[in-house]
Amino acid sequence: MRWPLVGRDAALDHAAAQLEAGTGIAILGPAGVGKSRLLHELCDGAERSGAAVVSVVASGTTSTIPFAPFVELLPGGPTPDRLAMLGAARMTLDARRRSGGL
Questions:
Q1: Which of 33, 41, 70, 99 has a 20 to 30 Å separation from 82 between CA atoms?
Q2: Number of domains in the chain
Q3: CA–CA separation, 87 and 82 (whole Å)
Q4: Structural domain of 71
């Protein structure tokens, strides 16, 4: 069971409106203020609305690798060069955005 989200309606509504408009959001703040909880509520609402939700994780270990958190979203198989890889990443992200998944 998850406790109800209290006092974050304005932030949740604002973030949901930004995503519905096709723009991105950043959830920032110090540790322990509820960023992860806000994100989970936002994702749950998007899924209930029929949007595809994909989670990625960034880490300090992969911070020097461009687009490392998005590797799992890319089609499999070898990529001949960096421009092709970036093109594939953009096409994949654009397709997900158009379908309401980003």
A1: 99
A2: 2
A3: 8
A4: 54-102
**Is 54:81 a contact under the CB 8 Å cutoff?**
no
How many C-beta atoms surround the C-beta of residue 46 within 10 A? 19
Task: Report the C-alpha gap between 3 and 56 in whole angstroms.
Answer: 24
Identify whether residues 88 and 60 lie together within a single domain.
Answer: yes
Kind plus residue range of the DSSP H or E element containing 43: helix 35-48
For residue 91, give the amino acid letter.
M
Token couple for 79: 């990529």
What's the pLDDT tens digit per position in 1-59?
778 888 889 999 999 999 888 888 888 999 999 999 999 999 999 899 888 888 888 88
Alpha-carbon torsion (47, 43, 55, 89), positive or negative: positive
